[in-house]
Amino acid sequence: MAPVPISLLDRSRTRVGEQPEVSLRASVARARAAEALGYRRFWVAEHHGVPGIASGAPTVLMAGVAAATSTIRVGSGGVMLPNHQPLVVAEQARTLDALFPGRIDLGIGRSLGFIKPVRESLRVTEYTPEQFEGDLTEVLAHLTGTAPVPAVPEVTGQVPVHLLATGAGLAVAARHGLPVVLGGPALHGDLTALEAYRQDYRPSEQWPHPRVTISLDVMVADTAERARELLLPEAVAMAESRTTGVFGPLRQVRTDDLDGFSDKVRSAVDRQLQHAMYGTADQVREQLAALVQRTGAAEVLASTSTYHREALTAADAALASLALPGRPVTGAP
Predict the structure, then answer these.
(1) d(C-alpha 264, C-alpha 244), whole Å
(2) What domains appear along the chain, each with residue ranges and CATH number?
(3) Among 12, 122, 130, 177, which residue has the least CB neighbours within 10 Å?
(4) What is the C-alpha to C-alpha distance for residues 112 and 47, in angstroms, rounded to an integer?
(5) 248 preceded by a cis bond (ω within 30 of 0)
(6) Is 270 left (phi over 0), alpha (psi -120 to 50) or beta?
């Protein structure tokens, strides 16, 4: 069996006391290091009006990452379709592919802005599943050259599309013959929708077989206790955002600091960590291997994040050394 590849999702998380541009430059540097470590893909995110995340323009950041690297695949995790016209999405992807042929992935999602003012600024306050599937169909038509309006520039290949999907999104991916990126609580609950995706899958020219990438927070350290503590800054920021509506920059949080938070925040932190995988290299390998076997995943997309950049660098190196047993799906890259 060939090992299941591991890739990285980087959200350009800001830190307290740092200028936001430091986070963008750190993302580019992290991508260079990931390439040297042998990672398969390096994906960036799209978040608007969020103080804790500097990545608001994923295709621009993708260009910077691709220009600073030479072999690693660069993608979006993902471009949020409610915020963009389908033709623009296709033309940006094709432009990137023309500049960096064979290295660009287009991950597409349907999340709206984090808070109401952001959604209003984006001019999208409502977005139905029907609208999403219609826009997705149009993006695919532009990328395959079957739309009434050509997406420029014309390129030799076709940019691979991945769908960030949960629930109903899995059915959409099956109808359009697209691979899925599945994350969050859906990985640990009932997998009926995932099995239906495989059973109902309609093969496409680019993706003849269903393909599942699992995405989750992963942290490797010398001990399980240290790995858990390294995840606390992200978990606390997420927990606090559900109370305040503000997803803030990362700040240092130690285990003892949790005593100073409310019961509500501590409970939310515990729930967040339950969906993460952390520990020593051997422990994380065992956890990920079990999840890969359970989901039949062809790839792992790790959204590792922590306040300490040195610890993040060490975690990336340790994670890259893991060999996960599996049988990756053949087809498009």
Answers:
(1) 12
(2) 3-219+281-325 (3.20.20.30)
(3) 130
(4) 9
(5) no
(6) alpha
Helix (H) or strand (E) holding 75: strand 73-76
Greatest CA separation found in the chain? Answer: 60
18, with CB counted inside 10 A (0-12, 13-18, 19+), is middle
Q: Which two tokens stand for residue 103?
A: 């290295």
Give the C-alpha separation, 211 to 178, whole Å: 8
pLDDT digits (tens, 9 = 90+) for 39-85: 999 999 999 999 999 999 999 999 999 999 999 999 999 899 999 99
User: Shortest CA distance to 306 belongs to which of 289, 318, 297?
Assistant: 318
Percent of the chain, pLDDT > 70? 97
Q: Given CA atoms 99, 55, 128, 197 in this order, what sign does their dihedral have? A: positive
- Residue 149: both structure tokens together: 């309006």
Q: How far apart are CA 105 and CA 129, in angstroms?
A: 23
Q: What are phi and psi of 305, to 5 degrees?
A: -155, 140
C-beta separation of 218 from 277 below 8 A: yes
CA proximity to 204, closest of 255, 266, 136: 136
Q: Are the CB atoms for 110 and 127 separated by under 8 Å?
A: yes
Rounded to whole angstroms, how far apart are CA atoms 125 and 116? 7
Distance from C-alpha of 88 to C-alpha of 103, rounded to nearest angstrom: 19
Q: Please state, in angstroms and rounded to a whole number, the distance separating the CA atoms of residues 72 and 42.
A: 7
Contact 269, 255 (CB under 8 A): no
Nearest-angstrom CA–CA distance, 198 and 186: 16
Look up residue 271 and give its two tokens.
């729930």
Mean pLDDT of 229-251: 92
CB 103 within 8 A of CB 66: yes
